[in-house]
Amino acid sequence: MQTFLNTVNGQPVAAAKTFDSLNPATGEVIAKVAYSSRDEVDLAIAAAKAAQPSWAALTDAERRAFLGKIADTIKDNADALARWVTREQGKPLGGDGRGSIPGSRFELMGCEAWTRATAGIEMPVEVAFENEQRRDEVHRQPYGVVAAIAPWNWPLMIAIWQIIPSLRAGNTVVIKPSEYTSACSLEMFRLIADVLPPGVLNTVSGLGEVGGWLVDDARIGKIMFTGSASTGSKVAAAAAVHLTPTTLELGGNDAAIVLPDADPEAIATGLFWGAFLNMGQTCACAKRLYVPAALHDRIVAELVKLVAATPMGDGMQPGVAMGPIQNRMQFEKVVKLVEAARTAGATVVCGGQPLSGPGNFYPLTLVTDVHDGNPLVDEEQFGPVLPIIRYTDVEDAIARANRLDVGLGASVWSRDPEQARSVAMRLQAGTVWINQHGTIHPMVPFGGSKRSGWGVEFGAEGLKSVTRPHVISIQK
Ligand code: NAD
């Protein structure tokens, strides 16, 4: 069985201790993964620190060329990496063409696209002020060593969002993947590190404690964390000790509001994928659907048809569109939330019982007659379950969408874009989509409001967030 090792200073690190990686579709152990010691974390940070000055001394054009090499490497290895993602994360392999299932091949396509887009962003010197007496230029400097910590839902794509802008800006990186998806992640990191100078990209792996050692270090110049709000709080507390700037991309509980003029048939596919992309294990999935009472039954009927037409199974099998839930902890959470809704009198329209056999299979589940205040509505389910809540007054739907302490994304669905925009303007979320949900883009800033996080990723603003402004103020 293959053991996946960390890469530090361009070299594999022998593993004194390992842990198992499981296939969520079968429950089988598919790989061994190195478990970093505290000393190894220390060495990884030291390697990144030593490599950073010469990486930052390259010209921006040289670093952009390295990003091009990374994108080529991802492309050349996309199929093999996608197979590891499916075996370890669970999402189906899917295709890589337009309109195909958004699975592992889609994730790899995203990794390449984000890398190329980030290489293409212009970062000109900004002139903040100029008159006859003075000129004030804002240049950008890297923070130094970026500590990146990634989750398990889109393990490669989210790691790319952390690594690529950091490198482009002249930082070096130490990254820790999720303990649930370390094999596929370490494989991609090894391939990327191979095309970079030694020490520019380094990895550590293990449980949360390893992430804790990584962020609790005065040599870290910037932390990029993506994961749950509870872990985000711990990371922020560690960062406070060293006053380390931090980007936190945390959980959400996105509301989707259908307006009374919407056409249920026309919006059903968008709502379906908005809620169930990656089995609902996506930070910005629609996790609460608010529908006008008059359209309720038609919308539910359309969604039921789509659920019935979506095959679930081991993602390595052709034609499978939905895989298992990634891990047992998340599976148990979904089971518990559906039971809480059922106990409170909700109607489980379809699904609602774990599938028999090995693996963490839970069917796509639609729940109606469920109300705000129920845990299935108020907590992030992060799984294949959508609560559908009736409303009669749009004002009330807006108030209910805004009542939680998280605000990552939200969406409004209507035939009238202007009416949708006026509702969107009032929703408390980092991004509000109109007639789509979760459709992120590498040039568009993305980040949470309220307890969904601090800072943004993607585009020029995302790139700025891995730099500090360096002002040159000239007397004329
Ligand atoms: P998690 O918080 O359990 O783990 C995330 C990472 O943090 C893992 O690598 C873990 O090992 C590490 N970690 C755990 N304890 C730590 C500690 N004390 N110090 C440092 N690192 C520690 O999250 P998860 O279950 O992997 O991911 C799911 C969550 O992530 C969901 O809430 C989801 O909404 C959120 N998420 C947010 C975004 C976004 O962009 N906003 C994207 C994807 C996922």
Question: Which characteristics define this entry?
Answer:
seven-stranded mixed β-sheet; 23% strand; 476 residues; 2 domains; six-stranded mixed β-sheet; binds nicotinamide-adenine-dinucleotide; Aldehyde Dehydrogenase, Chain A, domain 2; alpha/beta; Aldehyde Dehydrogenase, Chain A, domain 1; globular
Q: How would you summarize what this structure contains?
A:
With 476 residues, the chain is of the alpha/beta class. The protein has helices at residues 38-57, 60-76, 78-89, 104-120, 155-168, 182-194, 208-215, 229-242, 264-276, 296-308, 328-343, 375-378, 394-401, 417-424, 459-464; strands at 3-4, 6-8, 11-13, 18-22, 29-34, 126-130, 134-142, 145-149, 172-176, 201-203, 220-226, 246-249, 254-258, 286-292, 347-350, 365-368, 385-391, 406-407, 409-413, 431-434, 449-450, 453-454, 467-475.
What is the fold named in CATH at topology level of the largest domain?
Aldehyde Dehydrogenase, Chain A, domain 1
Task: Note the gap between the termini.
Answer: 67 Å
The CATH architecture term of the largest domain is 3-Layer(aba) Sandwich
Helical amount: 25-40%
Q: How many E strands?
A: 23
Q: Strand fraction band?
A: 15-25%
* Uncertain segments: none
Q: For the CA atoms, what is the radius of gyration?
A: 23 Å
Globally, the shape reads globular
Number of domains: 2
Largest sheet: 7 strands, mixed
Query: Which CATH class of the largest domain?
Result: Alpha Beta
Report the mean per-residue pLDDT as an integer: 97
